[in-house]
Design goal:
Helix content: 55-70%
Structural class: mainly alpha
Strand content: under 5%
CATH superfamily: Winged helix-like DNA-binding domain superfamily/Winged helix DNA-binding domain
Low-confidence stretches: none
CATH architecture: Orthogonal Bundle
Largest sheet: none
Shape: globular
Number of helices: 4
Distance between the termini: 17 Å
């Protein structure tokens, strides 16, 4: 799975940056940058907005 797609899934699942960073062996700052890039691509105004968009599109915890 692509890094942005995996991050998107992890964010929707509610995982904190530090947990995501530990899981994929990157720094928390890198997670923040990826999260910001995903939010910009999706034109999300906030993290809750991004999560709502993801859930509406069928992404989310299974």
């Amino acid at each position: 799975m692509q890094a942005a797609a995996w991050l998107f899934t992890a964010v929707v699942a509610g995982l904190p940056n530090k947990s995501i960073a530990y899981d994929v062996d990157i720094s928390p700052r890198t997670v923040e940058v990826h999260r910001a890039n995903v939010m910009a691509k999706m034109k999300a105004k906030s993290l809750p907005h991004l999560v709502r968009m993801a859930l509406a599109a069928g992404f989310g915890p299974s």
